Amino acid sequence: xxxxxxxxxxxxxxxxxxxxxxxxxxxxxxxxxxxxxxxxxxxxxxxxxxxxxxxxxxxxxxxxxxxxxxxxxxxxxxxxxxxxxxxxxxxxxxxxxxxxxxxxxxxxxxxxxxxxxxxxxxxxxxxxxxxxxxxxxxxxxxxxxxxxxxxxxxxxxxxxxxxxxxxxx
Amino acid sequence: xxxxxxxxxxxxxxxxxxxxxxxxxxxxxxxxxxxxxxxxxxxxxxxxxxxxxxxxxxxxxxxxxxxxxxxxxxxxxxxxxxxxxxxxxxxxxxxxxxxxxxxxxxxxxxxxxxxxxxxxxxxxxxxxxxxxxxxxxxxxxxxxxxxxxxxxxxxxxxxxxxxxxxxxxxxxxxxxxxxxxxxxxxxxxxxxxxxxxxxxxxxxxxxxxxxxxxxxxxxxxxxxxxxxxxxxxxxxxxxxxxxxxxxxxxxxxxxxxxxxxxxxxxxxxxxxxxxxxxxxxxxxxxxxxxxxxxxxxxxxxxxxxxxxxxxxxxxxxxxxxxxxxxxxxxxxxxxxxxxxxxxxxxxxxxxxxx
Lengths: 169, 354
Ligand SMILES: [Zn+2]
Ligand SMILES: [Zn+2]
What we know:
With 169 residues, chain A is mainly α. Chain A has helices at residues 35-48, 52-63, 81-87, 95-98, 100-110, 129-147, 151-168, and strands at residues 18-24, 27-33.
């Protein structure tokens, strides 16, 4: 199983508020940074290795006077924040944590200033938050294995999901 | 598949009884819930959607919710059956019309007071629908249902955001409370727009029951809360049932009294014309029927006509809809044939045909 969801900065122990995936020479790298490091890092990263399509979009954004920002991404389901803007639907439960920063002012507008839950709490506390994310990640791998027709892996992952669910309930 | 038990009678919510039923047709509470560890419906693969449907089927029908409940697989239902369920407010239009590749279902309570949609926008949409102003009763019932389902299924939930939903407009409590109101006098006096504006200022949504955006057919309006995060269920409920709804009810009552006092001839003219057309028409469309039924209902509630009772009028609002009409006559009909069958059904129910 993978490491738990990264909510800490890659560079320090502060909470990471900036999440993105960069693709450099076909290699996917997940980046998690706190506000401070994100501000520093984005300049450095751009100067060193910026893929051509990103350069282009930066150029377009610079021309149109919009700020250049990295795309926020949900690590569990792969949905980006701009996809959310298009559909106004979250991709999975983990999207809420992934987009927390950008979502908060939006939630305030929608819910008369409300940003935190103040209602019912499930009687059975249910699956702990981190385990929910782990379960999502396992299911994503499973779906990918099925799509790739890697049935051996799929069967193994399915067992893993089942065992994991039995443990937690 | 057929839905025999369902067409034979109208749902509990159309009884025309319950507190303030001259204005409040029904009270509804809905909860949005999602299973932990699955992507939301819009991003789930076909297999995952099937898995969600099957798990919900197994677990819900294994809980005490199953007692008397009917499980309907909507992907395998006919268009007509799906339309019938929409007309009866047991599933949403969106749920009925989703593509054939979306595995989805609904569990319906025996008396139709509750329905649980599976794989709509959220994995689960639980609703309770009761006649008249029965908000507190509806909430109590849905809270129990939610507890029963939760014994069998883990919901996506975090301490900060509460119940996680596909759309952030539902996150937190996931609760939507609404009432279906009959507001013919406010419409006739032209004050309905003022009420709509006031409601919007109170963060409520007001929409026509049939036909979004357009004029409310039958002067039926649905008023519902919008805020789900940062407020508890009981706070949302209390505001709604002890402040908002009573206010709208009193506006409508004032408008009715004003009409009766100041424009009684015009008022009676509307009521008796409605009666005349409904009990004599040979060919009639839904829109016209809704408008006339609205005036007739107003007349009965004001005691200005006693040829018919409220329950019959309430039922006609439902039975004259296209899917119900076709189910009742037992055959599929094109719109022209429906207009004839509709006129006959109305005359029969109003006692003009024996
Ligand atoms: Zn840092
Ligand atoms: Zn996600």
